[in-house]
Structure formats: C-alpha cells, structure tokens
Amino acid sequence: MKTLIKSGRVVTAVDDYVADVLIEDGVVSVIGRTLDIEADRIIDAAGKLVIPGGIDPHTHMEMPFGGTQSADDFFTGTRAAAFGGTTTIIDFAIQGKGETLTQGVDNWHAKADGKTCIDYGFHLITTKFEDGDDAEMYRLMGAGVTSFKLFMAYPGVFLADDATIFRAMSAAGQRGGLVCMHAENGIVIDEIIKRFLKDGRTAPKYHALSRPTIAEAEGVHRAIAIAEMAESPVYIVHLSSADALNKVREARDRGIAAFAETCPQYLFHSIEDHGDDWEGAKYVFTPPLREKHNCGELWKGLKMDDLQVISTDHCPFCMKEQKELGRGDFSKIPNGAPGVENRMALIYNGGVVENRISLNRFVELTSTAAAKMFGMFPKKGTIAVGSDADIVIFDPDGETRFGVEHEHMNVDYSSYEGWTVKGKVETVLSRGRVIIENGEHTGKQGDGQFLKRGECGKI
Ligand code: URP
Ligand code: ZN
Ligand code: ZN
Questions:
Q1: For residue 334, what is the DSSP state?
Q2: For ligand 1, what atom is nearest to the CA of residue 151?
Q3: pLDDT value at position 155?
Q4: Is 395 helix (H, G, I), strand (E, B) or coil?
Q5: Is the pTM of this model over 0.90?
Q6: Ligand nearest to the CA of 207
Q7: Residue 356 is part of a domain; what is its CATH number?
Q8: Closest atom of ligand 1 relative to the 92 alpha carbon
Q9: Is residue 201 assigned to a domain?
Q10: I want to staple 270 with a disulfide (CB 3.0 to 4.6 A). Which of 119, 242, 258, 292 is the partner?
Q11: Ligand 1 interacting residues, C-beta cut-off 6 A
C-alpha cells in the first residue's frame, strides 16, 4: 500500500519545508519537493502542517485507584488519543502488592492486548525492588519495558523508601533503563491531610492546599540526589511548580542527567480553578494545581529545555460515582483528570500561537523528545525516511472546540469545557493507515502494536 501526502509543510523538531511524503508499507520511504509517483491514496496537505504523531509518555488506562479505576480502557483511551493527534502512548503498568515485576507487566499486556487503536509501550510502577531483582528487571528491559516509575508519595499504596529507590536506580542506570519519579514528600503530606480533616477542612481545594510546592521541591531534590549517588539518570514526572523546577535546573546546570516533564493542567490551570465548592473535584490530581505564577515559570522551563517533555498524566474519573467517593473528604477523591485528547491542540495554541515556543519546539516537546527519552527514536518521533508513518496533518488555521460534547474520552466532564483554541488535528495516520479523518475514527480496535523500547535517556 502506497500513500502520498502532497504539498504539506513538513515540520519536525529541526526541519520546516514544503514537500511530498511517500509512505510504503507503514513507513516513510521518500520525501521530495515534488514526487511524481503513483500511489493508492493521495492526501492533499497544501496549507497544512505535516507533523510527527504525538507521543504521550504518561497515561493511566484502567488504573485501579482509591476503590475504583480510571474510566478509559485501552480502547476508549487510545481512540481519544488518536482524535487528539497522539499516535503513541506509554502507559504505567503496576506491580501490585505481592506481585513480581513481571506479573505487573503481564497484567497490563492482558488489559491492552487487542484493544488499542495506536501503538503503545509500558513503564512499570515498581513498588518493591530488592537486591537480586536486577536480573528480572533486565529481562523486562529485554522485552521492551525500559523505564520504571517509583513513588515518594502515597504511603501504604505506592510509596517506595529511599533504599528501594536507590537499588532500582542503580540497577536501571547500569543498562540504559530510566527511573521516572513521582517526587513529593508523601509522608509529610499525609500528616497535613490528617490535620486538615481533623479541622473540618474537607472540600476539594484542600487537596491542593495539603500538598505544598515545597513538598514537591523536596522530593525532586531527593530524587536527583539519590540518582546522583546511584550514578543513574532520573526523569521527574508531572512536575508542577517553579520550586520543583528550580531543583531540576540547579542539577542540570551542574551537568547531572536530571530530566523532567510537565503537563497541560499545570500550564493552563491554577489553584483558583478549584473554587470553594464540590465542582473543584474535577481538578483533584497529584501534584495539585498551583498558584498562577507557576504556569509562566513552567513555560520558561520548556523554552529553555529545563523541562524536556509535555505529557498528560491522563487518568480520568467521572464526577458521578467516581469523584463522588470523596464528597465530604477530599482525601478520598480519586486522583486524576482526563487530557490525552486535548494535549496537541492545547500546546499548539498556548505555545506556538501565543508565541511562547517555536513550531519546532512544539514538535520536540509533544513527540520527538519523548521518543528519544524512552528509546523509540527514530522509529517514532520524527518524519524521516525509514521512520514509522505516524503522521498528523494539522490545520494551523482550523479551530478545536473542547467540551464533553466534542471529546471522546470516557468521562463525564472536560478539563477545558467551553474552550476554543486555534489549530485542528485534521487527519491522523498510524503506521501509514489513516485512522482519523473528517472527524471520524476510521481505524479499529486492535490496530495498535506493543512497542519494545530500547535504551532510555538518549536525548
Ligand atoms: O493524580 C494523578 N496524577 N493520578 C495518577 C497517578 C499519578 O501519580 O500519576
Ligand atoms: Zn505520579
Ligand atoms: Zn500519572
């Protein structure tokens, strides 16, 4: 099967030119100014951007949390991702209590197998890592799971102590693996939560107030220090505040391999969005919303490469029946929000249209950097001869309307209800097959393939 994308403006992390792109058997085979080649299908992209499909390296499909599970499964979540111009996700498998590392990964294969609409990989949430677990970690890395998430938060659920973090980082770092850190001092946070509840401060906004930026900054500082002692790189997930960013910046200035991502919710929302009432439950995720000035600092971090990646931390829970579990006690509200479908258009508008980052940097932050960070480049994350034809045809003059009635995530609210932004995902190709066109999903469940990823941190 040959598909020819004609006359588009091809933009990668480093290129920007008008060209034709020929796709054969799922990969890009020829790029040229004008290609006079027969094809089974021709797509006219004149006036449109032709960009690498988005890569979202932080999603939680069907994730058990707080007595429920996130509302998107691997079908609805990856279909929504495709609508939003994302063609690869990396989801977080979980090593449950009493399970081996391998069981955690196997459980996630069972959830995803045959269900996804786009390609996918797994990180592994590692809750236990003893001396001698290295061999199992390396077997998993050989099977393509080359990154691991450890938590400094959620005592009794996911929290790993410093010794566990040190052991896991030491092992991963020796073989090109990468530890992703949820960096917040969860032990102190739990004490603050207890005080708040005792004082009757139970509304959703107290979720944010119970998790100060200093708790995040302390976690980031400690994670980087442990990584330095373990002689391994570290990747801070969902970084949300200027205080935490400063810790990453200081380390990077010293030449330490400290990397970090942020997410749209921290760039576009702030603590005021909680309000005082129950509706604020929509914004209960962790780390929480911050004061407004943090948004500008995070944009600066993205521009100056102290932050390398924009992910979503997509982890949707419906207001009805799910978030409701925490009515009267914010600590019981399941943590997480939808976003996998919103990211590309939001960042194009907030970043490129509003002049905060260049078009090349937009591609780098939403696709290329994640491919390099997590061992998928140049198969994913760029448009080049030999790369998978994961391509988005993006209309820079179009408009995207956000809101439940326009979105496809399996959740009863939108984090961006009523927003309209400039720029629109028009057509999406996954390994050369058109999977989104004219506002319809033209692919099918099971189209996506598991990605065996290679060494991480090659950025
Ligand atoms: O609130 C969040 N972020 N839920 C998902 C779990 C995590 O910590 O990433
Ligand atoms: Zn986390
Ligand atoms: Zn997460």
A1: P
A2: 8
A3: 97
A4: strand
A5: yes
A6: 1
A7: 3.20.20.140
A8: 9
A9: yes
A10: 292
A11: 60, 182, 238, 285-286, 313, 315, 335-336
